[in-house]
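Milestone 3.1: sequence recovery, worked example.
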């Protein structure tokens, strides 16, 4: 299986502006990268103080580590069960008892259920049994039988997640159910890391968490950040460039985690209603103020397909979206027209230019 999330190649590249020079010469660039949450995370901040700049990087990465420790559903080798993640404890107690969790986990679950309801179940954090069945998150992947899928689907239902905000607990009503935060955790962590940077007085920064990009402020010279949207069939190519400030840009594609069998590509982007891969699209990109929301919204857009996905995206205030079909036709919401530049590479057809 080719797991692009585990290699240096990222869903997005930050497009270098070769002619740009900082108007504020006192600002210096500080950059670092670490492998967290099964992906390469790169953070760049600008500061006039070296200690402040480097300290901001450290605290941003610490936030990714903290969220990962809360949301990872697979025990680490040799891990003491007394310090298991919130998600592991919730899953272990499915059908047994509610589990007290952190405020962050509670926020993630509540936001996920909100979008599950809004999308008619096209996004569902109880997808864990299906992901396990296909082998995503494990060392061996396989195509399960229809009977196996049907059995696993009986354990997928966001309506059986009971949240008690007053007591800070989450409970899965049916034994065998399991949460999977693969469609939201990186976005949430990116958003929390950006909050930390703001609290530290950082005004210009870019976070790239394996395709979950957050542009904090503008570039130091006041110009927008230019974020490249990758070509879903060429890891080194660009489909388009987005000009953005103070916003999140997140993409999902069938090239992130997948395996091939019998000449077919089986990706981790699975329709919760069928337990099988959604195949209408190759890639979706969402632009939204909240990185958490952008990360989540990508999944129902991909599952719903171009037509229904477009309708859903346009119903969400402040959300922009780009759809790349399996037929290489590209559509996008009208609110991105003035900040979206297509490269013309890759043989894609832009069918709704305005």
């Amino acid at each position: 299986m080719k797991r692009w999330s585990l290699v240096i190649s990222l869903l997005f590249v930050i497009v270098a502006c070769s002619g740009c020079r900082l108007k504020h010469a006192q600002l210096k660039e500080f950059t670092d990268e670490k492998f967290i949450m099964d992906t390469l995370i790169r953070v760049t901040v600008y500061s006039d103080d070296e200690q402040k700049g480097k300290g901001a990087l450290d605290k941003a990465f610490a936030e990714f580590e903290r969220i990962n420790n809360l949301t990872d559903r697979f025990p680490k080798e040799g891990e003491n069960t007394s310090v298991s993640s919130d998600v592991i404890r919730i899953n272990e107690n499915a059908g047994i008892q509610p589990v007290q969790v952190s405020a962050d986990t509670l926020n993630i679950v509540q936001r996920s259920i909100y979008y599950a309801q809004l999308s008619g179940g096209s996004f569902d954090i109880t997808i864990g049994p299906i992901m396990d069945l296909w082998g995503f998150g494990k060392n061996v992947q396989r195509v399960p039988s229809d009977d196996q899928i049907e059995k696993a689907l009986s354990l997928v239902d966001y309506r059986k997640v009971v949240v008690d905000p007053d007591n800070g607990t989450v409970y899965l009503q049916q034994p065998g159910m399991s949460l999977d935060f693969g469609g939201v955790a990186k976005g949430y962590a990116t958003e929390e890391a950006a909050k930390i940077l703001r609290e530290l007085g950082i005004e210009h920064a870019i976070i790239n968490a394996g395709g979950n990009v957050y542009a904090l402020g503008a570039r130091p010279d006041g110009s927008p950040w230019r974020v490249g949207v990758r070509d879903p069939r060429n890891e080194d190519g660009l489909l388009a460039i987005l000009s953005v400030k103070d916003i999140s840009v997140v993409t999902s594609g069938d090239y992130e985690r997948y395996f091939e069998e019998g000449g077919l590509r089986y990706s981790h982007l699975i329709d919760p209603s069928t337990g099988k891969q959604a195949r209408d699209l190759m890639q979706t990109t969402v632009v939204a103020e909240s990185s958490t929301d952008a990360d989540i919204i990508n999944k129902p857009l991909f599952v719903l397909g171009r037509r229904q996905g477009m309708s859903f995206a346009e119903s969400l205030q402040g959300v922009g979206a780009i759809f790349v079909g399996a037929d290489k036709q590209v559509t996008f919401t009208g609110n991105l027209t003035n900040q979206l530049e297509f490269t013309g590479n890759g043989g894609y057809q832009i069918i709704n230019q305005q």
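The first strand starts at residue 2 and ends at 3. The helical segments are 50-71, 86-92, 103-118, 128-134, 146-153, 185-199, 291-314.
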